[in-house]
Specification:
Sig_transdc_resp-reg_receiver; 19% strand; binds magnesium ion; alpha/beta; 12 strands; phosphoprotein; Rev_trsase/Diguanyl_cyclase
């Protein structure tokens, strides 16, 4: 399987000897590669930036700055570092070869070279480069897919807020954090008052819209670390990290008041809802979230019993 066509590949050739440039250019041209030529290290650095070649054939011994320095400079730029550099050098010295690889070269070919061998090496390094790019793209796509799946698994489709699964997972994490650092954290359990009446009066679809509207109101009045989600039906939960029960009551009261004050236009009339909220907080000895939710549920039950549209801790 070929990953590239030679005419789509630009090869930069760097050599201070004009004849060398011509010979190499001829060889590459016959195969169909695109070529760009420069005759010193400074030009090479400029050309790499402006032309972004797919591969570089780099002479080692050049006046002013030599190939090793050029290679090092290119490699130190993250935007250019994935361009494969093949040294083409008259030097047979082991030390030069080792330095070239140390500076980040992918290969080292000595002059005079065999045409077929040079072309085979160029081809192999281009193939490796394109495989790396393909793999990188696949990994990015996979990462995106995983993120999408995670979002799907953790959010409520109607409102876009977190779902019960996610809320419980975060709550368990908060319990561990609270145990370790001796923090407190508050849980608000919120239920829309007489919601059946909204459904009975306006229909289930309008009921859905009212739920969506309500979640937006709540989101507008929460802090960034707070975790708000749908626990089920028209019941919602807010997790407040590093928050004690008194502060939790203040937040709950603010949410209750904001929902009470706002209304949504439905079929030409303003519909407003109220919520009741039960507040509980983590206390030493709580091993799972169930115990805290249970206390919040009892508080919510009392809020309903005492006339609704209120907060009870
Ligand atoms: P209370 O004040 O005691 O909470 O009265 P309520 O009428 O709200 O009673 P309850 O909480 O028991 O009932 C909730 C109703 O909410 C029943 C159910 O049909 C409705 N409901 C639950 N989920 C949805 C939903 O996703 N969309 C709509 N439109 N209605 C829902
Ligand atoms: Mg030279
Ligand atoms: Mg209700
Ligand atoms: Mg309910």
């Amino acid at each position: 399987m070929t990953l590239f066509r030679p005419e789509d590949c630009l090869i930069l050739v760097v050599d201070d000897v004009k004849l060398n440039l011509q010979v190499i250019a001829n060889i590459l041209d016959k195969v169909g590669y695109e070529i760009t030529l420069v005759s010193n290290g400074y030009q090479a650095l400029e050309r790499v930036q402006s032309a972004r070649p797919d591969l570089i054939l780099l002479d080692l011994m050049m006046p002013e700055i030599n190939g090793l320095e050029v290679c090092e400079k290119i490699q130190s730029n993250p935007e250019l570092a994935d361009i494969p550099i093949i040294f083409l050098s008259a030097s047979q010295e082991q030390e030069h070869l080792l330095q070239a690889f140390e500076k980040g070269a992918v290969d080292y070919v000595t002059k005079p070279f065999h045409t077929a061998e040079l072309l085979a090496r160029v081809r192999m390094h281009l193939e490796l480069k394109y495989s790396r790019q393909k793999l990188k793209k696949l990994l990015e796509e996979q990462k995106e897919l995983v993120e999408q799946l995670e979002k799907l698994a953790n959010t409520d489709p109607l409102t876009g807020v977190w779902n019960r699964r996610y809320l419980l997972m975060i709550a368990e994490q908060e319990i561990k954090r609270s145990q370790r650092y001796n923090f407190s954290f508050a849980v608000l359990l919120m239920d829309i008052d007489h919601f059946k009446k909204i459904n009975d009066t306006y229909g289930h679809n309008i009921g859905d819209e009212v739920i969506i509207f309500m979640t937006k109101t709540v989101l507008n009045h929460l802090r960034q670390p707070d975790c708000f989600g749908r626990f089920g039906g028209e019941e919602f939960v807010v997790l407040l990290p590093e928050t004690d029960i008194d502060e939790g009551v203040i937040v709950a009261e603010r949410i209750r008041e904001n929902i009470n004050n706002e209304s949504i236009a439905v079929e030409g009339q303003q519909v407003s809802i109220t919520v009741s909220i039960g507040v509980a907080s983590y206390s030493l000895g709580d091993k799972t979230i169930d115990a805290i939710i249970q206390r919040a549920d009892q508080a919510l039950y009392q809020a309903k019993n005492q006339g609704r549209n209120r907060v009870i801790a």
